[in-house]
Amino acid sequence: MAEGATLRVAFIVWIAALSVASEPVAAQVAPPPVSVPDDPDQQIKCKKFAAVGSIIRKIKVCKTIAEWRRAQQAGNDAARAIVGENVCSGGECRGYEPPDAPP
Protein backbone atom coordinates (compact mmCIF):
# COMPACT_ATOMS: atom_id res chain seq x y z
CA MET A 1 0.00 0.00 0.00
CA ALA A 2 2.90 2.37 0.67
CA GLU A 3 4.09 1.85 -2.88
CA GLY A 4 0.69 2.87 -4.32
CA ALA A 5 0.62 6.02 -2.20
CA THR A 6 4.12 6.91 -3.35
CA LEU A 7 3.09 6.51 -6.97
CA ARG A 8 0.04 8.74 -6.44
CA VAL A 9 2.17 11.46 -4.82
CA ALA A 10 4.74 11.21 -7.61
CA PHE A 11 1.97 11.44 -10.22
CA ILE A 12 0.46 14.53 -8.56
CA VAL A 13 3.88 16.20 -8.33
CA TRP A 14 4.55 15.37 -11.99
CA ILE A 15 1.17 16.85 -13.09
CA ALA A 16 1.77 20.00 -11.03
CA ALA A 17 5.26 20.47 -12.49
CA LEU A 18 3.95 19.89 -16.02
CA SER A 19 1.17 22.46 -15.63
CA VAL A 20 3.55 25.13 -14.29
CA ALA A 21 6.16 24.48 -16.98
CA SER A 22 3.65 24.58 -19.83
CA GLU A 23 2.50 28.19 -19.18
CA PRO A 24 4.30 30.62 -21.47
CA VAL A 25 6.40 33.29 -19.81
CA ALA A 26 4.92 36.03 -22.02
CA ALA A 27 1.48 35.37 -20.57
CA GLN A 28 2.80 35.97 -17.08
CA VAL A 29 4.50 39.32 -17.77
CA ALA A 30 2.60 41.79 -19.94
CA PRO A 31 4.67 44.44 -21.77
CA PRO A 32 3.90 48.06 -20.95
CA PRO A 33 1.46 49.67 -23.41
CA VAL A 34 3.07 51.72 -26.17
CA SER A 35 1.56 55.15 -26.56
CA VAL A 36 1.12 56.32 -30.15
CA PRO A 37 1.01 60.08 -30.54
CA ASP A 38 -2.12 61.57 -32.10
CA ASP A 39 -0.03 63.77 -34.40
CA PRO A 40 1.55 61.63 -37.15
CA ASP A 41 4.50 64.06 -37.35
CA GLN A 42 5.45 63.09 -33.79
CA GLN A 43 5.80 59.39 -34.57
CA ILE A 44 9.34 58.04 -34.46
CA LYS A 45 10.88 56.60 -37.62
CA CYS A 46 14.25 54.87 -37.67
CA LYS A 47 16.54 54.61 -40.69
CA LYS A 48 19.77 52.67 -41.16
CA PHE A 49 22.78 54.21 -42.88
CA ALA A 50 26.06 52.61 -43.91
CA ALA A 51 28.88 53.50 -41.53
CA VAL A 52 31.77 55.37 -43.13
CA GLY A 53 34.65 53.01 -43.82
CA SER A 54 32.66 49.83 -43.31
CA ILE A 55 30.82 47.61 -45.74
CA ILE A 56 28.79 45.71 -43.18
CA ARG A 57 28.28 48.00 -40.20
CA LYS A 58 25.14 50.15 -40.17
CA ILE A 59 24.21 53.15 -38.06
CA LYS A 60 20.62 53.43 -36.86
CA VAL A 61 19.21 56.96 -36.56
CA CYS A 62 15.79 57.59 -35.05
CA LYS A 63 13.95 60.91 -35.42
CA THR A 64 10.38 62.10 -35.58
CA ILE A 65 8.78 62.26 -39.02
CA ALA A 66 8.76 66.07 -38.76
CA GLU A 67 12.53 66.08 -38.09
CA TRP A 68 13.17 63.82 -41.11
CA ARG A 69 11.04 66.14 -43.25
CA ARG A 70 12.95 69.25 -42.06
CA ALA A 71 16.31 67.57 -42.76
CA GLN A 72 15.20 66.57 -46.26
CA GLN A 73 13.93 70.10 -46.97
CA ALA A 74 17.21 71.63 -45.75
CA GLY A 75 19.17 69.30 -48.06
CA ASN A 76 16.93 70.15 -51.01
CA ASP A 77 17.27 73.88 -50.31
CA ALA A 78 21.07 73.58 -50.15
CA ALA A 79 21.16 71.66 -53.46
CA ARG A 80 18.93 74.24 -55.14
CA ALA A 81 21.15 77.07 -53.89
CA ILE A 82 24.26 75.38 -55.31
CA VAL A 83 22.64 74.64 -58.66
CA GLY A 84 20.99 78.06 -58.81
CA GLU A 85 24.35 79.85 -58.61
CA ASN A 86 25.61 78.15 -61.78
CA VAL A 87 22.75 78.72 -64.22
CA CYS A 88 21.92 81.29 -66.82
CA SER A 89 19.29 83.81 -65.82
CA GLY A 90 18.16 86.88 -67.72
CA GLY A 91 20.43 86.12 -70.69
CA GLU A 92 23.61 86.32 -68.63
CA CYS A 93 25.43 83.15 -67.65
CA ARG A 94 27.51 83.12 -64.54
CA GLY A 95 29.28 80.38 -62.70
CA TYR A 96 32.42 78.43 -63.46
CA GLU A 97 34.68 79.76 -66.17
CA PRO A 98 37.92 78.07 -67.18
CA PRO A 99 41.02 80.00 -66.05
CA ASP A 100 42.40 80.39 -69.60
CA ALA A 101 39.15 81.74 -71.06
CA PRO A 102 39.44 85.06 -72.91
CA PRO A 103 37.81 88.05 -71.22
Strand content bin: 15-25%
Element string (H = helix, E = strand): HHEEHEE
From the spread of the alpha carbons, the general shape counts as elongated
Oligomer: single chain
Structure description:
- The structure is a single chain.
- By secondary structure, the protein is α+β, with helices and mostly antiparallel strands.
- It starts with a helix and ends in a 10-residue tail after the last strand.
- Helices cover 43% and strands 17% of the residues.
Q: How would you sum up this structure in a few lines?
A:
With 103 residues, the protein is α+β, with helices and mostly antiparallel strands.
Main attributes of the structure:
4 strands; two-stranded antiparallel ribbon; alpha+beta; two-stranded antiparallel sheet; 3 helices; 103 residues; elongated
Topology summary:
Layout (H helix, E strand, L loop, with lengths): L1 H20 L3 H4 L15 E7 L7 E7 H20 L3 E2 L2 E2 L10
Antiparallel strand pairs: 1-2, 3-4
